[in-house]
Every structure is written in C-alpha cells, then in structure tokens.
Amino acid sequence: MRTASDRRRDQPWRVLETQEMIGDLRAAHARRFELPMLTAPVQHPGQPVPMDPYALGLLLGDGATTPAHATRGQELASAASPTAVAVRQRVDAPCVPEAYLRNTAEVRLALLQGMLDAHGEPVRQAGRTCRVEYSTLSPHLRDGVVELVRSLGGVGYVRDAHVVDLLLPEGIEPFRLERKRDEYLAAGGGGRPMRFVDSIEPAGRAETVCIQVAAEDSLYVTEDHLLTHNTLNDAFIILDEAQNTTPEQMKMFLTRLGFGSKIVVTGDVTQVDLPGGVRSGLMVVRDILGDVDDVHFAQLASTDVVRHRLVADIVDAYARWDAESERPKLRAAAPRNGPPQDQRRRNRR
C-alpha cells in the first residue's frame, strides 16, 4: 500500500503490518492508506450461459416486471436481443446468476452494461472523471453490480440501501446506450479507481494459511477482489530466539520468504522455553532442510562468543557440568549384572 505522500514523491508501493496502521488510518480526516488495484479484469474460465449477458442485464434492470427496454424507449429495444424481447415474466428474487459472475470479462462487462443501460446514470463531477450511479430495490442486484465492477478493476460503494456509486477504469465503458455513453465520455469517462483502508476490526481467531505465488510482486487476488500478499520481498529478515518456535511456526515463517530476500535465524538450543512435550522448531529444522541448496547452517561454539572473555569459560564450564550430570543418570538407568536381589537372597539360603 501507499500514502498520498508516497504518491506525490513517486515512491513505490510498500508492505505494512496491520499493527503499523492501527490508530493512524486518517490524516486530516482523509484516509491515509491506499490499496493496490487490479491492473486488468479478473480472468475466469469461460462457461456457457443460457441467455445473452447484455439481454439478461436489461431484463434484470432493477427487478422490474418487464424488461426495462419495454418502457424506456425504442433505443433499448433495438439494442436488446430477440431473446430479451420475448421474456415477460416477473423476476421475484432478482440476482446476478453465478454462471455470469464467474465468467469471462466480456460476459461480465456485457451483463453490467445491460444493467446500467436499464437503470444506471452517468454523474458529472467537477474537475474529476465521471462516476456512475446505479439504483435498485434489490440488495442482491446491488451486491451483484458491485461484484461485477470490482472484478473489472473498478470500485463500487453502497451509498444507501438502494443506491451504488461506481467508478470504472479507463477503457472499460459502462454503457452501450448512445445517450448515456456520449454523456459519460463527455464528462471525462473512466478514471483511476482507488480503494483505501477504512477501518481495522478484530474478526476472531482462525487457522491461517501462508502461500506464495509466482508473480514477481507476490500479489494475488483475495476476497472482494483486493490485492494482497503474505511474503516478504527485497528484505533482510532476522528471527531471533528461534529455539522457542514450534516446528509449525518455523515452517510458516520460512515459507514467507519473498523474491530478493534473505532470512537469518538465530537461537540457542540449550535455552528452549516451550511447554513440555513441544519440540523446538530450531532443533528439527536442520534435519528437514539440511540437504536443501542455498540453506546454510552454522553452529557456534565458545570460541565464537564475542562478549567478555569469561563468557566463553562459563559456556564451557556449563557444557562440562551438563556432560558430567548425565553420567549418573546413565548409570542409574543401566541394568545391574547378575540375578535380582531377591534371587540372590534365595541362593544364599
């Protein structure tokens, strides 16, 4: 993400942790943190649909009893396919079918154009590009339009229960109807949609999954068509006190390594402070990654200690004491030679 200051100074996008943003989301009442946007429409695999998408958009409109073009003039009627003209039933629970939402960009755009030709309007903005206003009585259609717009690289905001403000990127035309298209282009057409962090709220606890994708910037599309990533690019990362990680935590940390980054993991396996029975991730990682190229392990001895000279002597003394302390335990655990004591007593009798 980036701030307005980053944008003015032509600074690149950067990665921020959630903790860094909490309590600092606004500057002079303006949202601070801009999120990256899609640079092209999302590409879903194509699939057959039962009806021309533009015609379906006209039919859906705002959930009217008849297709919008039946009451909105000859131009819409001529733009619609014969399939749409023949349809007259009421749409009791209007919504955008999943087969159209998860289809090619061409299908999704045609559907959106039909819906906006039927019940959308271009809205001029002084000194800015043109936005589009869509109104409907159906919350399902409202959410479907927002989904379509976001999947095409635009933004959609619900202003109230029935009105949605839309802004589409340049090159994505929302209208086929000549009057609306001309008015839209005359008002500046599409612009540069932007999305910002509005609030940060706890959502409970859940199992998380860290992934890495092939894209050089490590970005991938997540819910609501937001771009995100959970890897670290062009960074030098140090994990200290790693003896207190579990094997699962160690794996999660190491798999976040991004392009152009290096990780250094340090820890002391003699000072593990984990609950009983929990293995140290630092103690097992060498067995797992010892043969992986570009992964290097360095084991430090007392001669590598760079503190007071006595520290090396103290480390060696503790090592000798640990070794000597283990000997009585080994002797106590070893089986005794000869028959058990009770058997020896019976033999003496």
Detailed description of the structure:
The protein has 349 residues and is an alpha+beta fold. Among the domains are: 38-193, Homing endonucleases (Endonuclease I-creI, Roll); 302-348, no CATH class. 34% of the residues lie in helices and 12% in strands. The chain contains 13 helices and twelve strands. The model is unreliable at 64-71 and 82-91 (pLDDT under 50).
Keywords:
349 residues; alpha+beta; Endonuclease I-creI; four-stranded antiparallel beta sheet; 34% helix; elongated
Quick overview of this protein structure:
By secondary structure, the chain is α+β, with helices and mostly antiparallel strands.
Furnish the topology, listing elements before pairings.
Blueprint: H1 4-8, H2 18-21, E1 26-27, E2 30-31, E3 34-35, H3 53-60, H4 74-79, H5 82-86, H6 98-101, H7 105-119, E4 120-125, E5 128-135, H8 139-151, E6 155-158, E7 163-167, H9 178-186, E8 195-196, E9 220-221, E10 227-228, E11 236-239, H10 247-254, E12 262-265, H11 281-289, H12 309-333, H13 341-348
Parallel strand pairs: 11-12
Antiparallel strand pairs: 1-2, 3-8, 4-5, 5-7, 6-7, 9-10
